[in-house]
What we know:
The complex is a heterodimer of chains A (about 500) and B (about 475). Chain A has 17 helices and 11 strands. Chain A is α/β, with parallel strands linked by helices. In chain A, helix 4 links the parallel strand 2 and strand 3 (about 115-120). In chain A, helix 2 (about 20-35) packs antiparallel against helix 3 (about 50-65), helix 7 (about 220-230) packs antiparallel against helix 16 and helix 10 (about 300-320) packs across helix 13. Chain B is of the alpha+beta class. Chain B has 15 helices and 15 strands.
Amino acid sequence: MDFQKLSAREIAAGVKAGKFTAVEAARDAIERIKKYDKKYNSIVTLCEERAMAEAEAIDAAVARGEETGPLAGVPYAVKDNFCTQAIETTCGSKMLKGWLPPYDATAVKNMKEAGAVLVGKANMDEFAMGSTTESSVFGPTLNPRDTGRVPGGSSGGSAAAVAAGFVPIALGSDTGGSVRQPAAFCGVQGMKPSYGQISRYGIVAYASSLDQVGGLTKNIADMALVMEALAKPDDNDTTCDAYERPSFTAAVSGASLAGKKIAVLTGYDRDSIDKPLVEAADRAVEICRAAGAEIIEASLPVTMEHTVACYYMVALGDASSKLACYDGMRYGHHEDGKNLSEMYKRSRMEGFGEEVRRRILVGTCILTRGYYENYFVPATKVRQLISNEFKELFKKADALICPIVPALAYKRGLVEEDPVRMYLGDVFTTMANLAGLPSVSINLGFTPEGLPTCVQMLAPRFGDAELLSCAAVIENAAGAPEPVTEKEGC
Amino acid sequence: MSRNVVIGLEIHLQLKTKTKLFCGCSTDYIGATPNTNVCPICLAVPGSLPVINDHAVDLAVKMGLGLHCDIKDKTRFHRKHYFYADLPKAYQITQYEHAIAQGGYLDIVADGKEKRVHLDHLHLEEDAGKLVHPTSDGRLSGAAYSLVDYNRGGMPLSEIVSMPDMNSPAEAIAYITQIRQLARYLEVSDGEMESGSLRVDVNVSLSNADGSLGTRVELKNINSLKSIERALEYEIARQNRVLDEGGQLVQETRLWDDAAGVTRSMRSKEGARDYRYYAEMDLAPIDAKPDYVEKIRAAMPEMPWDKRARFTEQYGISFEESQQLTEQRETADYFEALVASGAPAVKAANWMRMEVQRILRDAGMEITDFPVAAKELGSLIAKVESRDLSNTQAKDVLGAMYDGGLSLDAALKKCGAAGGRLTAEALCAVISKIFAEQPGAVETIKNGADKKGAKQKFLQGLVMRETRGSADPTEVAKTLAEMLAK
Ligand SMILES: [Zn+2]
């Protein structure tokens, strides 16, 4: 069986129908990772033992004729900042090297409940800080579409694992685009759901008010399955909303744009965006129009001007707070010191990498008296304005189309020279996190050189099912991206 | 020069919940093996998130209502950052700008005068863990290493911050006592200083001649009411002395050294710490909508001060008696049960303060453990009132009820007081018996030689002893006289 060619839905159906076993699917994924991932470095820890145990349990349930979950026997990978019980969880950092969490993240638990089989932990930028997956303690991940380029970040390992065809599904976390941007760079579908849609319990935090679990998949129908498995209330996360979720799979299967109003973002400099990406956005608009949607133009002046600055104020302030717990005392990297204070300093200095230290320092500064009033407080006000701007927009439109990244996948090493350029690349992604909105990155094919092109679609808060429905229409017209085949990838 | 004393207090009350403020760990940590009441949340394991304990919110609202505060809806938590070994997240989750209960006041009585102490606010926060230093005196200095016990980390606290409205150690003590009483009435906290469920930080300053506030000194580490009083007295004297000598006071935190009876400088406040307070986004705002607050208010018991006022009015007892009887809710309940079973209030109050109190004190017992049912003791007191029993008899009976665990009836039988007061006939029999035993005295009286009546008093005393007080002295005197006259 050529599992690489199958979607998550097809694998689950095959396992249930007895065409093949969950063990075969998991074994195949693991063997391919062992064989081919040396080239990409997308998976940093294989969970072979656990995968076999989970897969055997699924097969046993199928054999007993029991109802198995919608993702029965589907192998998947999670970003290495998801806590996995007794399996090393490092956040790509020396700080957590060797750390074995005592519990599973709720998302991991929910995937297991849906029948999915965890095969590996995916590489990432250290503590999810970065857009290239070059800052990991495990070394960089390479983009399977072009190994001379970065896979994006910070969920670059997750995106690469799907693009390389190792797994049909990978989970990432998205603080300011960390799922959607690597999806765009690697040519897979990526989604950041509404804030409060999926439990954050067990996801090592970057910024509490921005982080959201997201999925990376081969196609939108699989994304709906992931959402169905993960989007539910959780007593362990009070920011995870308790509302009754609609059926995401139903929304995707009946996809239509008739009677829909789709807004197209204007008012940004089209020349500053790589041409294939502008064309991709235009093509997506045409697909929507042809599918019967009414297209309107909309601008978001406050958002476009301030989103990046606002995002970094909020995210870095929060990060300095959330990363304060790594003090070398109870877990994580420890260095001795003459006294408590020196122990903290040395443990944190040596445990954290450069980018993380830079962001903690800036974040700490932002929260310090004086700077707080002059920078952080205004940023929270701007955040509210951005939120309001979207509320107004979504009174007139059901969804918004715009680019997701300003550039095609960067060449490796480019960003190291100029971190500010990397930050500015976040202009189209961060607004969804600041406003708590759902957003998908949808592949629209490849450039002649084989680089993925893509478009972003956003919807109102908790309009995730509608958003997937619109995305499915675009995907149906443009075609879902095929993963790199082993032969090409090797 | 006379200066005014200005005192403000911060009281930390440990809330009586079964689980910690943000996780499901047990709050029953005293005596527990270190680091056994812990979980990913209270240890700040990466990925964990706090979840508010609704019961702790209920208790904070209840206490806030008892203190006449405004309860605010949609209040939230902040993170207070600092690195220390007992704080696993490196921030404490606390309420900062938006405390759940704001304003409010508490009326106290000190030096015989009533006074209103205003409050700034009451807020919720989590406790830190505890450092254990392996030195003989448990202090940090000289310790080669320290151990951390996180069992206390995350315990729910409510911090009550007063305005600087108190002007003497006596007022400060009265305020703390009143807070503790309220907390116990509302079953919000045990309020025990010894176990740390009530902790007090004291701010004290002397006001200048023009009325402006002087330099403020904070006193910490004080573990009993007595120590607070001593620490305040010492500190007031010290500040006066420094100022009298023309010196300057520094704003600082001082620790009370109970053994030496002095306060010592701990750290000066010049380099005020920047805690980088920051909104806790992992927790949604607290819902304390008016109907929820009203529901809690409706279920509140009678406040101690209301009970105290009612007791003096309804039962005609003195303020002091009323205060003693209402100090604990259980004592007041017991007293009212005595009255309900027929004991006159003033007598019942007396019995509570004398006999019951003595037994409890001797046995080192709480009123809740007192084995004599209020209903039975009430009936016993009623019998004294109707002169069916003498006071002495009744005390014996109570003794038998307490020592032997007897019912009222059984105790009456055992003490030979089952029949109650001696009737005229029985009394005559006793008197005849005494006459027979003391023919000489009878003779003297009948001869008219008992000029001063000493012999007759002697006989009367013998009768009283024989009847073990179960006869009415007036009746004894009257019957004795009649029989001698025969
Ligand atoms: Zn706990």
